[in-house]
Amino acid sequence: MSSMPSANLMFGRRAAACTVGRRPAPWPACVTWLAMFVFTASVSWGAAGSWEYSPYRIHVWIALAPQPELNHLVRAEIAATVLRRAGVEFRTTWEILLTEPPASLVGELMSDLPRLSAARIAQVAENQLVDDKLICVSVDANRQRSIVRARELDSHTRLWGPLVEKSTRNPEQLADTVFACLVEAFAPITRIELGETRTAVVRLRAGGLAPEGQSLIRPGRGDVLVPVIRNNDRYGKPILERTAEVPWTLLQVTGEDDINRNLLNCNVYSGMRAPIRGRTSGRKERYAVGVRRTHPATDMQVHIRTLKTTDPRVPLPGLEVYSRIPVAEPPRELTVEETKAEERTNPPEFLGYTDWSGTLRVLPAQAPLRLIYIKNGGQLLARLPTVPGYHATQLAEVPDDNPRLQAEGYVKGLNSQIMDLVAQRQILAARIRKRIAENKLEEADQLLAEFRSLPTPSDLQRDLETQMRRQVASPHPAVQTRIDKLYGETRALLPKYLDPDLSNKLMEEVRQARGRATAPTAPTAKSQARAPRPATRELQAAA
Predict the structure, then answer these.
(1) Over pLDDT 70: what percentage of the chain?
(2) Pair (65, 126) in one structural domain
(3) 364, 388 in Cβ contact below 8 A?
(4) pTM (two decimals)
(5) Are residues 28 and 147 in the same domain?
(6) What gap in Å lies between CA 47 and CA 67, rounded to an integer?
């Protein structure tokens, strides 16, 4: 018996019987005896062990539909196949307990597995959530095919994984299909030991038992984890309302620790600042669960961020959405020059515009992790990490940018008006000075009148202040700061490019030129020599 795989696979008290319809049908005695004899030779169920060097303890509920095709022989084959393949592929890293689900949950497992809640499981069978995992499997069959559905409930985080569904037309492949669903539904879990703003260190569950290259238990470089914060009551039980994934935050594994191979170094990508900083305590636990892509794409919905729970959700159509593959270095704040250099080396990919419902479909790429940039009118609204295919839909709430867009539209129009006015003033000033130099003062006066008919800086200042009073204030401080910055920069632009004294200077230059033209000229010595003397004129007249 020493050559048999030591997989720590056991049967519980309820594992000796499975339900076909309402009548329990016993597991075949040979399967029960073999499982009890082979797989109880190692660590007993519930024995205390460390996080890294004890196997995953996994409860598996298998519910079969009351169909003639799913008889007790099929049950026996499924059980034997799951035990055999788990022992070969996962060895000492999995410790499985195959049981039948509680009778009150069989109907929900068969018909409503995607909507089954963790609170419902805890209400009926809380003792099943004291270990690592609970994987619920439902098997249905018709004349054409057999359909297998599986979903994992993590006992540490009390969060459901994605639904896995497979089908087969060959009855002989049903047991292998059930095991494939189990494997695909399983997600490794790690414990966050150190969380910083841009980096994190996580500790592998059963990492000391996992051999090199077993990616299902040991995430590798580039794999993605989703952090989960669990809050406990004073008895150490999780508070379901305060246990959830950290929104828009993902960890990407960069490699193992140089000293302890059970520790993984990760980069933190988040739409928030310092999302996982802090310490783990008895009332607050931090985990990171592996991400598995089970959907063909992710529909990203962009709505206005609501300030009250009673506010309706308003979609944002027409937003620009870009995507980029993150670099291997830890994320950090970049300068303007560094941002431009990164855009040249790793240019963002334009994905499209959000439709009328504020939705855009994001397809998976070769790299699992993508950074999504949402822009409106050239303004970056959000920078969000995502794994396309992990969720069927994701809701991104961004501040209402319409007030800023209104201010930006007015400011752009005013800037164009300022540029045109600066050009007109400079051209007229040059023409006026040219007419003064040519002593064409009448034309200079006409051009000066045309110059004075142009809008003055004071007129633009009054229009700007009027628009600022009409501007719709934003309830979001960040958006209001951008609005104030737009108006402040425009106000500072007016005296910089529009000289308020230019009109007075031109008027003074024209006045001085007119004064020079009307003043009497003093006689020169040459003109005096040529002028005849009065006596000489009289003599000439008498002659």
Answers:
(1) 83
(2) yes
(3) yes
(4) 0.74
(5) yes
(6) 38
Together in a domain, 171 and 211: no
Q: For residue 33, is pLDDT > 80?
A: no
Task: Look up residue 539 and give its two tokens.
Answer: 């003599």
Question: What band does 10 get if pLDDT is binned at 50, 70 and 90?
Answer: very low
CATH code, domain with 306: 2.60.40
* Total count of domains within the chain: 4
Answer for the pair 143, 163: CB distance below 8 angstroms, yes or no: no
Tokens for 168, please give them. 């087969």
Q: Domain range spanning residue 424?
A: 402-516
From 314, 209, 199, 194, select the one nearest 268 (Cα to Cα).
Answer: 199
**pLDDT beyond 70 at 40:** no
Q: What is the pLDDT of residues 215-233, one digit of tens each?
A: 788 898 899 999 999 999 8
Q: CB atoms < 10 A from the CB of 433, how many?
A: 16
Q: And the tokens for 409?
A: 């539209």
Please indicate, yes or no, if residue 538 is contained in any of the structural domains: no
Specify the long-range contacts of residues 145-151, CB closer than 8 Å, at least 24 apart: 145/169, 146/69, 146/171, 146/174, 146/177, 148/174, 148/177, 148/178, 148/181, 149/113, 149/181, 150/178, 150/181, 150/182, 150/184, 150/185, 151/113, 151/114, 151/116, 151/185
* Residue 72: predicted pLDDT: 85
Same-domain status, 353 and 219:
no
Which DSSP helix (H) or strand (E) runs through 75? helix 72-89
Claim to verify: residue 364 and residue 498 sit in the same structural domain: no
Q: 467-512 pLDDT, tens per residue?
A: 888 888 888 888 888 888 888 888 888 888 788 888 888 888 888 8
Tell me the CA distances in angstroms from 177 to 65, 112, 137, 139, 174, one per residue in order.
16, 20, 11, 10, 5
- In this structure, the answer to whether residues 43 and 163 fall within a common structural domain is yes
Encode pLDDT of 358-416 as tens digits. Answer: 999 999 988 899 999 999 877 888 999 999 999 999 999 998 888 888 888 888 888 88
The two structure tokens encoding residue 280: 């783990």
The residue count for the chain = 543
Cβ 360 vs Cβ 265: under 8 Å: no
